[in-house]
Amino acid sequence: MPYHKNKQQAYQAAEQGHKQAMDAYAYSQMIKEEPGYGRQLKHVEEEVNEAYAQIENALETASDTQRRQLEQFQQDLQSIVNEVNND
């Protein structure tokens, strides 16, 4: 039972990390022309890095269904990185 609980907790942490990174990025896009934009981009970078780490951790024990979702989370984060690098 602890294994299953840890597996679920790892997935939930990755899911939450993904959401926080997506939210931080969305907010950065709303304030793109404002003075705090650079600081917000740094926050986005931190959230993305943390989410990547959480996803990698969750992938170690993920079920097939979870793995597909986690891989989608990784693609979403890569899209953020690509957008930020192209700005």
UniProtKB/TrEMBL annotation:
* Name of the protein described by the UniProt record: Small, acid-soluble spore protein N
Keyword annotations for this protein, in alphabetical order, are:
Coiled coil
| Stretches of the chain forming a coiled coil according to its record | 41-83
Q: Which organism is it from?
A: Bacillus songklensis
